[in-house]
Specification:
It is a single chain. With 766 residues, the protein is an alpha+beta fold. 13% of the residues lie in helices and 31% in strands. It is built from ten helices and 45 strands. β16 (382-387) and β17 form a beta hairpin. α4 crosses α5, α6 crosses α9 and α8 (148-156) crosses α9. The longest helix is centred in the N-terminal third of the chain and has 18 residues, at 83-100.
Length: 766
């Protein structure tokens, strides 16, 4: 402590307490009460000052420095008060703490817990340990954040203490229906609520006959509980000082719009929703909606825009459930929007460590949903679950150590009672895997390593110890067959990317398709597209599942436009190779033989001088989604026609650092281009092409209105006739499109949405 502070504190101690407190209250009300509340209980969103516990220390000198300097990264800025004036504020804060601590919680916390879960029915509105309702605040740390006085007052007269963000509103629609709920957001035209059933709902003010604040939804327990029961409940609540100490309630609370496994299986019965990353488990990215069609698509106009305000690449693919859109803002923020207006219900942000490094940008491609839980992977290699009604964190588990190069960018796949998530980091020498977690608890159910270890089948496909740094990540969402109970995930490149000298062999299971049993994680079959890849041709593209006639026989097929330039058909029940046909220009393989193995052409591997090969490092296509239309029977693929010069260099593995063994550059004088091509799956025949100027990174969406939507690097969002490829409509979004479109209904109207630049745009008919 500085000498000046010691002398100043001594002067405060000698000052008559009543006058110091009175003057301190005057300064406090003018400078602090708007955040911390007039009674110091934090009503304005600031910290509770009545507990005597402070984040940066509770000594007078600590408080002096905190008030004088503020707290970086928060809304508390430094004060302009003099040190003498701050001293009087501290005297007032001390009086608040003394008043807040007055009295003792003399009840029985065990009886209080029983009242909480039983007679009080508190769990219907509040959550502890990630379980419970969302109409009221989480209570995991209520005993540390709130004084005994506050707890008693809130139970007896709840309107005396309404926490910020929990103001109740009463609405009356012109039809006469009354809705009461918690106001989440509001603008001049609309208001967003979480209603008493925990539904997220949005209302146009023009359709309301009445709108006004309402009494707290929390009952006045002074009328229903005895003084002894209230004291027991206060004792229980005051014991909740951290998530680890909180005891979860017996009830999980109310709520509707539950997304069951059966709903996702039968997604086609809900054409207005978009319940999983690809729209259905089969990876089709196809909408059965027909309101927007070839006859009227020229009337498509922007209906609303949501601004991400981010400098990261936006690759998100939203999901939509009963009028609520859930999406991710990079790197790891989850947002719930009104699908009809783009107004926000809630948001949650996962904070990343400062030392995260990941190939190709801190991105996130989307979410999965099951029951009332949303699931997201994070750039620091975690999987988290949120309550879809409130955005509160339910669980957070580590997949791997991000400092070793592991990262999560994939949208998970929620299947039965599990959430399945892959991993990124193929350029950092990681060991790839696919994980399954219990959707309710976050406990890992199984892990399949994409590189076999000692004693496992196919272990000998890596030279020496090269398997330990072999890559084979799983960074794009897989598909699922409910009848076979198999999930299909493509794997990425072996490491190092462009120098295979030290990893002789096929390098299984890199650049492969894996069929895994969802219940156990056991490998049912695999197929490797590019053995011993030295061109970075990840096979992670979304696998498309369809039952089609192939050579006179109905078969369960897996359709895969691979990054290596070939379109493959596999039997998804057995893994049998059926056919492979080039869908873009390629100069590396003479053919694909009868077993599905490429017959390589000479002089096509990377060299020190550089070797020109088609396709380039980005492949014929990449992570962005294809689309299969059951209406036309065609697979639509966004693709790139361009070569690269591949260079080989030394590869020195160091944990967490780039481990590529080379590089690549454009081939001089060769201008690439992009396109959408329609492939007839049974034959591999190209039925039509729509060419665009620049090799792009936007996925495609087909609809039952005989449309295919896509986007370009220059920011044009377009619609094609799904039967002919003729362009019918386009809109200049003003931002690079590197995401996948979705379609859904809101307020009875069909929308098509796409991320462009740092915007999400939703289009509808005028």
């Amino acid at each position: 402590m500085m000498l000046s502070e010691i002398l100043l504190l001594a002067a405060w101690a000698a000052q008559p307490a009543p006058s110091a407190v009175a003057e301190g209250r005057r300064y406090y009300m003018g400078h602090c009460a708007h955040c911390h509340g007039p009674d110091g209980e934090g009503a304005g969103g600031g910290a509770n000052l009545t507990t005597g516990s402070f984040r940066l220390g509770g000594a007078d000198a600590d408080l002096l420095r905190t008030i004088r300097n503020g707290i970086p990264g928060t809304e508390m800025s430094g004060s302009r008060l003099s040190d003498a004036e701050i001293g009087k504020v501290i005297a007032f804060i001390r009086s608040l703490a003394q008043a807040g601590a007055s009295g003792k919680a003399g009840g029985d916390p065990n009886n209080g817990a029983a009242i909480y879960n039983g007679k009080g029915a508190c769990a219907q509105c509040h959550a502890i340990g990630g379980s419970g309702g969302s109409l009221g605040p989480e209570l995991d740390t209520i005993g540390r954040r709130r004084s005994l006085r506050y707890l008693r007052d809130s139970l007896v007269t709840p309107d005396a203490h309404v926490p910020g963000g929990y103001q109740a509103f009463s609405l009356v629609q012109r039809s006469g229906e009354r809705i009461t709920g918690i106001r989440l957001n509001e603008d001049d035209d609309s208001i967003q609520l979480r209603d008493a059933g925990e539904n997220l709902r949005s209302f146009r003010k023009a359709n309301l006959a009445e709108m006004k604040p309402a009494a707290s939804l929390m009952p006045a327990y002074g009328k229903t509980l005895s003084p002894r029961e209230i004291e027991d409940l206060v004792s229980y609540l005051s014991s909740l000082v951290g998530r680890s100490s909180a005891r979860a309630p017996a009830s999980a609370g109310p709520g509707t719009s539950k997304v069951t496994f059966e709903r996702i299986v039968n997604a086609a019965r809900e054409p207005g929703n978009w319940l999983t990353y690809s729209g259905n488990y089969q990876g089709w990215r196809h909408s059965p909606l027909t309101e927007i069609n070839v006859e009227n698509v020229n009337r498509l106009r922007p209906r609303w825009v949501y601004q991400f305000r981010t400098t990261h690449k936006v690759e998100t693919s939203p999901i939509v459930v009963d009028g609520v859109m859930y999406l991710t803002r990079p790197p790891n923020e989850v947002i719930a929007l009104d699908a009809a207006t783009g107004r926000r219900f809630w948001s949650y942000e996962h904070k990343l460590p400062a030392d995260v490094h990941v190939c190709c940008g801190q991105v996130n491609r989307g979410l999965a949903i099951l029951d009332h839980r949303l699931f997201m992977t994070t750039v620091d290699a975690r999987v988290i679950a949120l309550d879809a009604r409130s955005g509160r964190l339910l669980w957070n588990v580590e997949q791997a150590d991000y400092r070793q190069g592991y990262a999560g960018t994939v949208a998970p796949l929620a299947v039965r009672d599990k959430v399945i998530a892959g991993i990124a980091g193929g350029e950092y020498g990681i060991g790839g895997f696919v994980d399954a977690y219990d959707a309710a608890t976050g406990k890992r159910a199984w892990r399949f390593h994409t590189i076999p270890g000692p004693g496992e089948p196919n272990f000998g496909t890596w030279q020496g110890d090269s398997w330990k740094t072999g890559g084979a990540p799983t960074w794009v969402t897989g598909s699922y067959d409910p009848e076979l109970n198999l999930t299909y995930w493509g794997t990425g490149n072996p490491g190092p990317d462009w120098n295979g000298d030290g990893r002789a062999g096929d390098n299984l299971y890199s650049d492969s398709m894996l069929a895994l049993d969802v219940s156990t994680g056991k490998l049912r079959w695999f197929f490797q597209y590019t053995p011993h890849d030295e061109h970075d041709w990840d096979a992670t593209q979304v696998p498309v599942l369809a039952d089609l006639d192939f050579r006179g026989r109905r078969r369960k097929l897996l359709l895969h436009a691979n990054r290596n330039a070939f379109f493959y058909l596999l039997d998804r029940e057995s893994g049998e190779f059926l056919s492979a046909t080039p869908y873009v220009n390629q100069t590396w393989a003479k053919e694909i033989d009868a077993r599905g193995r490429p017959v390589r052409l000479p002089n096509t591997f990377p060299t020190i001088e550089g070797t020109a090969v088609w396709p380039g490092v980005d492949g014929g296509t990449n992570w962005y989604s294809p689309s299969y239309s059951p209406v036309t029977g065609l697979l639509y693929v966004a693709l790139q026609e361009q070569p690269h010069l591949f260079f080989k260099a030394d590869a020195d593995y160091r944990p967490g650092l780039y481990f590529a063994g080379g590089s690549y550059t454009p081939v001089p004088g060769v201008a690439g281009y992009g396109a959408v091509r329609a492939i007839h799956p049974p034959t591999g025949e190209i039925r039509w092409e729509h060419r665009v100027l620049t090799p792009g990174w936007a996925g495609v969406l087909s609809t039952a209105g005989n449309l295919v939507f896509g986007g370009t690097e220059e920011g044009n969002f377009f619609a094609l006739d799904a039967r002919t490829g003729r362009q019918l409509w386009s809109f200049p979004t003003g931002g690079r499109i590197i995401a996948n479109p979705v379609s859904f209904t809101a307020e009875g109207k069909q929308y098509v949405a796409i991320a462009a630049g740092d915007l999400l745009l939703a289009f509808g008919l005028d």
